């Protein structure tokens, strides 16, 4: 079994996942509401929204979609969880922190802690909470 996170956006899913694919060196598979079998029942103004996207990074997946207003529960934002990245060295932690936190809000700067060589907590510009954790820096020995 594998457990994968699934995020929901309100029209920013494609921009967010292109950003994440760039930052995480992943590959995307994306389908829009206007391309699905039920496209005729989706209002035309929502055809470009993402029905499903999958970001593959190695054997890991992060998935998401946009909401389709009027076709379910109103969007209330992403809350109550964080995407946690476990990285192998400080340079990679620093690279990811700089890239993903750009234009976001930082709750805890990337720094040494009692449990990790480096740790950071921030919300990106799309409203997604991230944690970066580097337990051991292999380059430090």
What would you say this structure looks like, in words?
The chain folds into two domains: 5-66, Signal recognition particle alu RNA binding heterodimer, srp9/1 (2-Layer Sandwich); 83-140, 2-Layer Sandwich (Signal recognition particle alu RNA binding heterodimer, srp9/1). It is elongated and about 55 Å long. Strands 1-4-3-2 form a four-stranded mixed β-sheet, with helices on one face. The chain has a four-stranded mixed β-sheet with strand order 5-8-7-6, covered by helices on one side. With 141 residues, it is of the alpha/beta class. The two termini are 33 Å apart. The mean pLDDT is 91. The chain has helices spanning 13-24, 90-101; strands spanning 5-9, 27-32, 50-57, 60-66, 83-86, 105-111, 118-123, 129-134.
Strand order of the largest sheet: 1-4-3-2
The arrangement of helices and strands along the chain is EHEEEEHEEE
Q: Helix share of residues?
A: 10-25%
Largest sheet: 4 strands, mixed
CATH topology of the largest domain: Signal recognition particle alu RNA binding heterodimer, srp9/1
Text of the CATH class of the largest domain: Alpha Beta
Query: Roughly how many Å apart are the termini?
Result: 33 Å
Beta strand %: 25-35%
Average pLDDT, all residues = 91
Query: Radius of gyration, Cα only, in angstroms?
Result: 17 Å
The general outline is: elongated
For the record, the CATH architecture of the largest domain stands as 2-Layer Sandwich
Whole-number total of structural domains? 2
Which structural class is indicated by helix and strand composition? alpha/beta
In terms of quaternary structure, the protein is single chain
Protein name: VOC family protein
InterPro entries: Glyas_Bleomycin-R_OHBP_Dase, Glyas_Fos-R_dOase_dom, PhnB-like
Pfam family, one: Glyoxalase
Domain Glyoxalase/fosfomycin resistance/dioxygenase: 3-132
């Amino acid at each position: 079994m594998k457990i994968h996170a699934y995020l929901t956006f309100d029209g920013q899913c494609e921009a967010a996942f292109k950003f994440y694919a760039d930052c995480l060196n992943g590959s995307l598979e994306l389908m829009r509401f206007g391309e699905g079998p039920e496209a005729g029942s989706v209002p035309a103004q929502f055809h470009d929204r993402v029905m499903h996207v999958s970001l593959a990074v190695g054997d890991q997946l992060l998935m998401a979609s946009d909401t389709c207003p009027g076709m379910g529960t109103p969007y209330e934002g992403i809350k109550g969880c964080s995407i946690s990245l476990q990285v192998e060295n400080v340079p990679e932690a620093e690279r990811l922190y700089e890239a993903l936190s750009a234009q976001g809000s930082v709750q805890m700067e990337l720094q040494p802690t009692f449990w990790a060589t480096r740790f950071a907590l921030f919300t990106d510009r799309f409203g997604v909470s991230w944690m970066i954790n580097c337990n051991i820096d292999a380059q430090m020995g």
